[in-house]
């Protein structure tokens, strides 16, 4: 993305320089500017972006694999509950995840529509009563991330936040065991 | 009978016909995609290993691409029958916009052929 933005910036700067540098001006005929600036360059850029979006979109689909982890997310006014299938653990407003694994979050709500969002990890998804929406996310570095409700859901909406703790794979099970012991 | 002013107004509208059709195709494909996913049309195969969902989307896309081509052909024929320089210019612009819209439809809706249609 940075490389693409740099190329576009340099090309635009060159076109702009043509207005001030007489030796470049003859190269920048209106026909060339329209053909390259209006058709060829945008088409190449858009094709690259669409191809990238298609490829990434397919990778983000929640296909069940051996490596995929699934966590149930239940939203209610004004808290988040996280359930970890295969364990009796349920945490409130604190989400534990392992680093380096695709995680499918199955998101639902018990009352009104909320929206589950961990901005640093990816896109948001609505939590709708009676319906499960799935979003696939992945943390590549251990640490703490902030999560919020991204859909106005009542007077307690603004403080309806949660903390995401991304553990190294070897520490993840220990974190769940520790939660179960509480 | 259509007088010159009304004819020019229709001609002005035809400038937006190509991308208007693109927008209608977008809404129709999006709506049918959602309906198909809600009814589980993506499960199983109906013909040649294609699901009902894929087939209905391909059919819809085919109809809209045919309409795009018909629009380009129709505008080309009208351009040749233009009387004045203004009409010729407007017809030419409308035809080029319709060609651009046809290319845009082929580009943006190619996902109908390639991509997974519903969440697994």
From TrEMBL, chain A:
Signal peptide: none annotated. The chain crosses the membrane at residues 33-56. It comes from the Bacteria. InterPro entries: CcO_II, CcO_II-like_C, Copper_CuA, Cupredoxin, CuRO_CcO_Caa3_II, Cyt_c_oxidase_su2. It is found in: Membrane. Residues 66-178 form the Cytochrome oxidase subunit II copper A binding domain. Coiled coil: none annotated. CDD domains: CuRO_CcO_Caa3_II. Belongs to the cytochrome c oxidase subunit 2 family. Subunits I and II form the functional core of the enzyme complex. Electrons originating in cytochrome c are transferred via heme a and Cu(A) to the binuclear center formed by heme a3 and Cu(B). This is Cytochrome aa3 subunit 2. It comes from Chelatococcus sambhunathii.
From TrEMBL, chain B:
It comes from the Bacteria. It comes from Chelatococcus sambhunathii. Keywords: Membrane, Transmembrane, Transmembrane helix. The chain crosses the membrane at residues 12-35, 55-75, 96-115. This is Uncharacterized protein.
């Amino acid at each position: 993305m940075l490389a693409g933005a740099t190329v576009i910036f340099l090309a635009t700067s060159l076109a702009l320089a043509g207005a001030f540098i007489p030796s470049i001006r003859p190269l920048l005929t209106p026909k060339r500017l329209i053909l390259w600036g209006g058709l060829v360059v945008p088409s190449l850029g858009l094709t690259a972006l669409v191809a990238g979006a298609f490829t990434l979109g397919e990778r983000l689909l929640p296909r069940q694999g051996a490596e995929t982890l699934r966590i149930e997310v239940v939203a209610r006014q004004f808290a988040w509950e996280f359930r970890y299938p295969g364990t009796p653990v349920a945490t409130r407003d604190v989400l534990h995840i392992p680093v380096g694994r695709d995680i499918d979050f199955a998101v639902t709500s018990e009352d009104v529509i909320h929206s589950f969002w961990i901005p640093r990890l990816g896109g948001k998804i609505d939590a709708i009563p009676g319906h499960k929406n799935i979003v696939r996310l992945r943390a590549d570095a251990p640490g703490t991330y902030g999560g919020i409700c991204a859909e106005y859901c009542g007077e307690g909406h603004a403080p309806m936040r949660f903390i995401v703790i991304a553990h190294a794979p070897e520490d993840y099970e220990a974190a769940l065991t520790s939660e179960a012991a509480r | 009978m259509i007088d010159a002013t009304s004819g020019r107004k229709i001609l002005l509208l035809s400038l937006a016909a190509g991308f208007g059709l693109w927008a209608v195709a977008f809404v129709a494909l999006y709506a049918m995609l959602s309906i198909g996913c809600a009814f589980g049309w993506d499960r199983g195969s109906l013909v040649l290993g294609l699901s009902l969902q894929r087939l209905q989307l391909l059919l819809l896309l085919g109809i809209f691409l045919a309409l795009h081509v018909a629009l380009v052909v129709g505008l080309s024929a009208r351009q040749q029958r233009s009387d004045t320089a203004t009409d010729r210019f407007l017809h030419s612009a409308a035809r080029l916009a319709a060609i651009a819209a046809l290319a845009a439809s082929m580009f943006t809706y190619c996902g109908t052929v390639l991509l997974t249609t519903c969440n697994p």
